[in-house]
Amino acid sequence: MFFLISKVAGYLVLPSNIIGLLGISGIFALILGFRRTGLSFLVMSVALLAILGWSPAGPAALLLLENRFPQPSITGPVAGIIMLGGAVDTHITAGHHSPALNEAAERLTATAELARLHPDARVLLSGGANHLVHDNSPTESQIAKDVLVSIGLPETRISIEELSRNTCENGSETAAAFQAEPGEQWLLVTSASHMPRAVACFRAAGMNITPYPVDYRTRGSADWLRPVSTIATGLAASDLAMHEWLGLFVYRVLGLTEELFPSPRNPV
């Protein structure tokens, strides 16, 4: 039930969807004769569209997330590399029978490069089918495995976890399936804006991981004040930031994690 509610609520609270719903509500209110209410909704819709589309609000909210965990300096042997799902589109892959990568594809390229640099490390791909309606689409992990094998990573080095449907299930299912030995170093690869939520979930599952953020969407400190060039870009940043900040809050309130905004330290 939590998975269903989280998916539906997650779509409804995205800034771009709120703007659209306000606009549609305003039009219907005008049609029904509620002029003042309709105009109020339309004004709010246009104002939010301009603020979140052109202002640096979205990129700034992302920047806070992306700066939380710096790129680590890897020292010592690496026992394993965990890559979280989210780099592929399962529906398009199923529809065209060809792996379809999305804007988070750097998770795959970074994992392949880390595997090359650390030839003794195991590679674990975590991510199942997180669809509201089940279909015949392959899991995220299976598609990612096919891509990594196609670019030269030996299949024998890759293990996949296909039960998880969200970030905290990534942590719990990974911890249940693959027990790391004490003192081993495991790298966690995911998008920089997603890393705080991922770290909170993996720490709650008792896994000692080294965050390895990739797939940055901001340009650094300049994005604190730099206006966004297109409304589409600003809304995309605002939607992604809202998704991650809301996820951090909800996971903590529900007791799924032990930290609201985890810091770059080893779990105690």
Annotation, overall tally of beta strands: 5
Morphology: elongated
Strand order of the largest sheet: 3-2-1-4-5
Distance from first to last alpha carbon: 31 Å
CATH class of the domain at 73-216: Alpha Beta
CATH topology of the domain at 73-216: Rossmann fold
Q: Percentage of helical residues?
A: 40-55%
Describe what this molecule looks like in 3D:
With 268 residues, the chain is of the alpha/beta class. It has a domain at 73-216: HUPs (Rossmann fold, 3-Layer(aba) Sandwich). The protein contains ten helices and five strands. It has a five-stranded parallel sheet with strand order 3-2-1-4-5, sandwiched between helices. Helix 7 links the parallel strand 2 and strand 3. The protein is elongated, with a radius of gyration of 20 Å. The two termini are 31 Å apart. The relative contact order is 0.17.
What's the SSE blueprint?
Blueprint: H1 2-12, H2 15-31, H3 35-54, H4 57-66, E1 80-84, H5 90-96, H6 106-117, E2 122-126, H7 140-150, E3 158-161, H8 167-177, E4 186-191, H9 195-204, E5 210-214, H10 231-253
